[in-house]
Specification:
This protein has 275 residues and is an alpha/beta fold. It has one domain: NAD(P)-binding Rossmann-like Domain (Rossmann fold), CATH 3.40.50.720. 43% of the residues lie in helices and 16% in strands. The strands form two sheets. It has a seven-stranded parallel β-sheet with strand order 3-2-1-4-5-6-9, with helices on both faces. A two-stranded antiparallel ribbon has the order 7-8. Helix 1 packs across helix 8. It starts with 7 loop residues before the first strand and ends in a 6-residue tail after the last strand.
Length: 275
Amino acid sequence: MTKLKGKVALITGSGRGIGRAIALKLASEGARVVVNDLDAAPGDAVAAEIRDGGGEAIAINGSVSESGFSDRFVGAAMETFGGLDIIINNAGYTWDSTIQKMTDEQFQAMLDVHLVAPFRLLRAASEPIRIMAKKEAEAGREVFRKVVNISSIAGLYGNAGQASYSSAKASLIGLTRTLCKEWGRYKVNVNCVAFGLINTRLTQPIETQQKTIDVAGRDIKVGVQPQMLDAMAKMIPLGRGGTPEEAADAVYLFCSPESNYISGQVVVCGGGLII
């Protein structure tokens, strides 16, 4: 199957977990992929894995929140592959606290990575998309492009301890629906996937000692208490958390030609979980 043959896909946060699964899925369908990770090693590894499998990929690593990243990311896609067809705003992490303990830094960090970074990337992509769409229209061709923003059920329903994360993910839905209206004339489908419990390093069970990840010099705690994971699993009609590959399949639905007349929508990939 090569439904995305020749398409150029930009995927933030694609060195690990869900992002890696998305990159491999789109590459398996023929897309040329621009990989990104905060850390160079995993980003480079995914790009190499795609190339080793016969696909085309490059890695543009670094923080999506850094000034200038979006222009560098879009520029690399245009220079290397000569186009831009799919944008997946996937990069992110959680930094939780109840509101009375949450600092301004925590709140702003979640806005920066989950909302400001996607906004900047879409803004950077707007002029190349406009130019390509104009040329295609003049030639009488209808070419659809895809944007998939990654939200969360926390953005739809809220979640205790995640005022910052939930606010950013909810705002991303607003950005999705606005871009759907602005970019429809360019034949861009702009949709959103809201994940429920997906089993990644961020949602791994906390064993004896809680693990942390380094994000821009900050030690961020990751993992979920086992009893909380058990309780969540019992709330999911399908009885378990999803795999990164199942999460990637949901994103792929909005990248495929079958979604050419679907835009401005939010699909929950959560095994039936509705809080």
